[in-house]
Design brief:
The protein is an all-alpha fold and 157 residues long. Helix content is 70%, strand content 0%. The chain has one domain (3-156). It has helices spanning 3-25, 34-43, 60-72, 80-107, 114-125, 128-134, 140-156.
């Protein structure tokens, strides 16, 4: 195993652990995104854009959470904290997948020295704003993941 791969593994594991720990600890969100999911659960339909504060957002994230909550039994209002933590852990996982895609992209850059790749990856992995988005119950992390994947796939062609 190359030194670069060892460094990547250490950085990735550190970044994942930070995201998991903060997702478990964080009890605040900047925007009220979970009411959209609760609306879907209560009414068994997608809300119109004026039904709640964040109802204008794309519904993939919220529909996925609603399905997961129903499947796991986290639909009670008493489980609001558990719902938030589950949503945050899903985003922490999506953020971790985003980091893996970024690393795969950096590995393909043969004209960049290994040290520079590790530095660039570290900046992405430990970027405070990216970590903050990755540990909140919002649909932003899913968007970042899909955009990163689209860029990677487009570059790979």
């Amino acid at each position: 195993m190359k030194k670069t791969d060892i460094a990547f593994t250490i950085i990735l594991l550190g970044a994942i652990l930070i995201r998991i720990q903060l997702a478990l600890y964080n009890q605040q969100s900047n925007d009220p995104h979970l009411p959209v999911t609760r609306y879907i659960i209560r009414h068994n339909e997608l809300p119109q854009k004026n039904e709640c504060w964040e109802c204008f957002q794309p519904k993939l994230y919220y529909s996925s959470l609603a399905y997961l909550y129903q499947y796991t039994g986290l639909v009670d209002n008493a489980d609001r904290d558990a719902q938030k933590v589950v949503a945050q852990l899903i985003n922490a996982a999506a953020g971790s997948v985003t980091l893996v895609i970024i690393w795969l992209f950096l590995r393909r850059q043969k004209d960049i020295r290994d040290e520079a790749r590790i530095l660039v990856f570290s900046i992405w992995a430990f970027n405070p704003q990216l970590i903050g988005i990755n540990i909140q119950a919002t649909n932003d992390t899913l968007l970042i993941l899909f955009c990163t994947l689209a860029i990677y796939c487009n570059y790979s062609v």
